[in-house]
Design goal:
Length: about 425
């Protein structure tokens, strides 16, 4: 069928969607015979016995079951994609920053265009990886699923068309999409090429953060998340199914498109979110609030209040604090921070950190505004200021990020990053200013 870009709204809701009226069985998940001769298949994103509020699963009613392959999986070249355990190199405590990854000259689809910059965790369901994708080719007759983690996709240049088992999602710069563990999909550039970032989350699924004293409104609102409606294709041919499993890529041949789900219901489904709808909460008296107030999604850990990984954004917003240094303060953090920039400039850096680039400040590595930013902000007139042309983000993990060999040896690594702080001269006079 022709893809229809229609969406269901809400985060974590139990949705029901059918591309053919009557394709959803009435009152039963797995009847002896499904409507239209479909197969019933459950996709579980959590163990069966999780508490009801944390149980993730969807029932899919498809033309052929997912078990239908025409060959065994065989391992394939994973190019610059890396996964746990991240032990290629010793992780230095240095502050690191990279220029943008160029779109390759040779044809590269989403799978081939994934480059791992850093990752955390030593195995098991904990930690995350930070990838950059640079693609110039649609996936065609190739499909992909990740058995290791959820994929949070952050476009930076050019949109992506995500054709999934649940329906079709288009995601543009300024939006994000999440494809959960195990879901089969294609990601193709909407136009000629596309580039962006991916957080591969090995921990508990992303959810909205608790609001605590903020109250019932603010940050990302559940109603602004969009999940695709059912949309299927009935297509036979010679197709490739690529799986990421235990850190390696495998490929099997299949004789039909796996995007053949005619109807589905459940709460385990891909979604997108427009970051411009984020309701920022900010300082209106004095001092700079902690970056946790900009959390869009969080993957919790077993320790209350300690995230496995947070997805944090720094969007356009007003800056109005009085008698305060307004940019991010100098900081050392038990969390590790991988940052990227979607557009504009970042308030703590005057130059060097550009859209498509990245930086890494690991656990307890000191960081903060560069010398130019410090000097400008220290003497600025503190009138209300709207930070307009900016959209930065952070994958903040409770485990250290280990840069890959590529990340530490590529010419994109800025060898002079430390020089941005060289102008921070001692101004101590012994007298109260």
């Amino acid at each position: 069928m022709t893809p229809e870009l229609k969406y269901l709204r809400g985060f974590g809701n139990h949705f029901a969607s059918e591309a053919l009226a009557g394709a959803l069985p009435a009152g039963q998940n797995s009847p002896q015979k499904c409507p239209f001769g479909l197969y019933a298949e459950q996709l579980s994103g959590s163990s069966f016995t999780m508490p009801r509020g944390q149980n993730l699963r969807s029932w899919l009613y498809r033309i052929r079951p997912s078990v239908s392959h025409s060959s065994r999986f065989h391992q394939i070249d994973q190019r610059l994609l890396r996964s746990q355990p991240f032990n290629e190199c010793v992780a230095p405590p240095d502050q690191l920053r990279w220029d943008p990854l160029p779109v390759p000259a040779e044809p590269a689809d989403f799978v081939d265009g994934l480059t791992t910059m850093a990752g955390s965790g030593y195995g098991g369901y904990r930690g995350c990886a930070a990838h950059i994708y640079a693609v110039n080719k649609p996936m065609g007759d190739r499909f992909f699923y990740d058995a290791d983690g959820d994929l949070l996709i952050v476009p930076e240049s050019g949109g992506l068309v995500l054709r999934t088992e649940f329906g079709v999602i288009t995601v543009e710069p300024g939006e994000i999409a999440v494809i959960q563990r195990g879901i089969r999909f294609q990601a193709s550039p909407k136009e000629r090429q596309a580039r962006g970032y991916v957080c591969e989350n090995y921990g508990l699924p992303f959810r909205l953060p608790d609001l605590g004293p903020i109250g019932s409104n603010g940050l990302a609102n559940p109603r602004d998340f969009q999940t695709p409606v059912a949309c299927f294709e009935e297509r036979d041919g010679d197709f490739e199914l690529v799986a990421k499993y235990e850190g390696h890529l495998f490929q099997a041949e299949i004789k039909h498109s796996p995007l053949d789900v005619v109807a589905w219901h459940g709460n385990y489904a891909p979604y997108k979110y427009d970051l411009s709808l984020f309701q920022a909460v900010n300082t209106v008296t004095f001092d700079h609030s902690d970056p946790s107030i900009f959390t869009v999604l969080t993957s919790p850990s077993e320790v209350a209040g300690l995230a496995n990984v947070d997805f944090v954004i720094f969007p356009p917003r007003w800056s109005v604090a009085e008698h305060s240094f307004r940019p991010p303060y100098f900081h050392r953090n038990i969390m590790s921070e991988f940052m990227g920039l979607v557009r504009g400039s970042y308030e703590a850096k005057q130059e060097g950190f550009v859209p498509g680039g990245a930086s890494l400040h690991n656990c307890m590595s000191a960081h903060g505004p560069d010398a130019q930013t410090y000097q400008r902000a220290s003497g600025a007139e503190l009138a209300p200021q709207y930070l307009a042309d900016t959209l930065a983000f952070m994958f903040e993990c409770s485990l250290p990020f280990h840069p890959t060999r590529f990340a530490l040896t590529t010419g994109l690594l800025q060898s002079d990053y430390l020089s941005c702080w060289e102008g921070l001269e001692a101004g101590f006079t012994g007298k109260r200013s």
